Structure formats: structure tokens, C-alpha cells
Amino acid sequence: MAKKVLSGSATAVAVLLLCSTLQLAAAIKDGLLPNGNFEEKPKASDLKGTQVMSRYAIPSWEVTGFVEYIESGHKQGDMLLVVPEGAYAVRLGNEASIKQTLNVTKGVYYSITFCAARTCAQDERLNVSVTPDFGVLPVQTAYSSTGWDCYAWAFLALFERVTLVIHNTGMEEDAACGPLIDAVAIKTLFPPSLTKENLLKNRGFEEGPYVVPNTTWGVLIPPNIEDDHSPLPGWMVESLKAVKYIDSDHFSVPQGTRAVELVAGKESALAQVVRTIPGKSYALTFSVGDAGNGCEGSMVVEAFAARSTVKVPYVSSGRGGYKRAVLRFVAIAERTRVVFLSTYYHTKTDGSLCGPVVDDASVLSVRSPTSRRRR
Ligand SMILES: *[C@@H]1O[C@H](CO)[C@@H](O)[C@H](O)[C@H]1NC(C)=O
Ligand SMILES: *[C@@H]1O[C@H](CO)[C@@H](O)[C@H](O)[C@H]1NC(C)=O
Ligand SMILES: *[C@@H]1O[C@H](CO)[C@@H](O)[C@H](O)[C@H]1NC(C)=O
Asked: Which domains does the chain have, with CATH numbers?
């Protein structure tokens, strides 16, 4: 009898273990989503020209509305469409969407990366959503010279199974006008922890969205996202325009493998709120450099905290490099907003937007000059 009970509980343990292993195995891995680069094709019978004729025609995806399956090299008017990842992409016409259901871990933050190219419409907007979160991302300014830009967006998983929807909210005269989408990927975000000395979270921008290995133009972090839902944990992009997340595989970064390029002048500001003690002195230390991407010129990065501000000049030869800078400030509240922005706009010779790089930032409490004198 005792033996039977024992073996019964052993089975229960085994079943539990098996369940948790299965659950772990089922949660999605970082990287491209299943058929995230659309290389698995619809059957020829599900296509009419480029138009996708049935809901489940593209493996792993569900489509609604006017969706086209586009092969790299496809010509539209005098525009040659080139695809960043593999040879295929999709195009979302007016009110069209693609969706995929993902197995995730409840309570965990994820960031979605996808690449999009504007085609013929003037003002294209994509609504990216995982219920109940959504973000409307404008796809109007080309930051890269290829016409493709990659975008990041983050969500908190409230369920074990969630549905990611990318929806073109456009209402163009030509229903076929709409952005191309490719390389849809996911990355688990780990909330950055504070160290005792440094008050800034994710100080080197090492924690952030997935960078699609075959893309060479970074990932845009869109503005106006609440900081707990930022694809760049700890940081917010204020103002109107995006900042660019860059990686050391394709760019020169001052420290580690990731950094941020301020590509939109004063229209984009990178900010973080830190806890401070009013009256205490602090030092914000950071690196200012260039991404080694041919962005040349006299640059200035401005940093703000409490009532203090500093302008850090940096002459970029476009070949990489950086200098260290410091902003000393006295806190006037329990929360201090630390902000970085680029004073000027910069463009590369191909016309794409670029700018100075910020990396390796820290806020440390320092002794004030008066207390030092007393010692
Ligand atoms: C997601 O989980 C369900 C069970 O909850 C399973 O049937 C399905 O195959 C999983 N999907 C993937 C892509 O792992
Ligand atoms: C991505 O880049 C790798 C390495 O450069 C290459 O081998 C691979 O074919 C590329 N993949 C696609 C889909 O273009
Ligand atoms: C975006 O999509 C979500 C989910 O479908 C929806 O709830 C939300 O209203 C949409 N927002 C806009 C501005 O279209």
C-alpha cells in the first residue's frame, strides 16, 4: 500500500516535471517568429498575382484584407522593391493586417522588432498590438537609405497565449498602396536592475530589442511610449521622433555591443527618471561618439538634469570614436529626469538621417564641494 502511494506521488512529480518542461519548450524563443521573414510561401492556388486570396495561405500567419506577397525584385512603377531578409515580404493594403498567435510567459515583457518600407502612400501608420496594448507607429520618415527601417515595440504578456497583430490603418485611394513588412522578430526583455552606486537603469543600452542580423540599419525606438513598456528598458523616447538602436556588428559603439544614435536633432530626446535626494550632488557621466557609419560633422549632445545642462561638442569623421563627458547637478526633487538630445540634424551623403551616439551613462552620488572643504 505504502509502495503504491509512493509510486503514485513519484508519477505526480514526473508529470509535473514533464508539464513544466513542456511549458518551457512551448514559450517562444528570441529571434524571428515562425515564418517571420515570410520565406515559406503560400500555395500558388492561394495567390492571384501578388494578392493573397485566403486567410491562412501564408504559413504560420493569418491575414485579413488586401495583403500581397511580394518577391524581392518586384517592380512597382519605376520602384524596384528589395527585401531585407531572404527573398519575400508582405505588403499590407488599406485596413489589412497580419497576425500570429504566440506562446509566451505570462507576466514577462517582450519586444517585437519588424522591418517596414513605405511604398506609394504619403502617410503610412501601422498599429502593432497584443491585447490590451497597442502602438501606432508612423512609417513616413525614411531613416535608412535602403527605404527599409526596423521598428521596436514592447508589450507585457497578460496571458500564456497572445496574438500579435500588425495592422495598416491607412485609407489610401489606391487600396494596394501600403507598407511592406518583413523580418518580424521577438525578444524577451529583462527588467534592468539598479546597482547600489549607479542610479541609471540599462546604462549601456545592452538590454533592448532584437536586431535582425541581416539588417545593417539598426532599430528605431519610437517616441511616446510609457517607460514600463519601452523596448529599451529603463529609457523613454520623448518628443516627436525616434532614436536609433545600434549594434556593434554593424556600427561602432563606445562600450559593450549596443548604443543609441540620436538621429532626429532636437525632435528626439532620450530620457530616464532617477531617484534622487533633494540637495544632494550627482554626476551624470556618459560617452558621446559617432557610429562609424559615415555621419560626419560638428555634433553637439546636450544633457539635462535638474537645473543643470551641458553641451558636449564632438567632431565626427564618420569613422567611429567617442569621448567621455560629465554633467554635475544638484537634485531639487526626489525624482530627476535625465535627458539627452542632439542639438543639430545630421545627414549622410545618401540623405539618410544620422547623428551622435550616446552610451555608457551613469549617475553617481558625489560629495558636494562644500562638504569636501569641511573634511
Ligand atoms: C502553443 O501552445 C499550444 C498549447 O497551449 C500548442 O498546441 C501549440 O502547438 C503551441 N504553439 C507553438 C508554436 O509552439
Ligand atoms: C543572412 O546573413 C547570413 C550571413 O551573412 C547569410 O548566410 C544568410 O543567407 C542571410 N539570410 C538571408 C535570409 O538573407
Ligand atoms: C489598434 O489596435 C488595437 C487592437 O486591435 C485596437 O484596440 C486599437 O483601438 C487600435 N488603435 C488605433 C489607433 O487604431
From this structure: 31-189 (2.60.120.260), 243-374 (2.60.120.260)
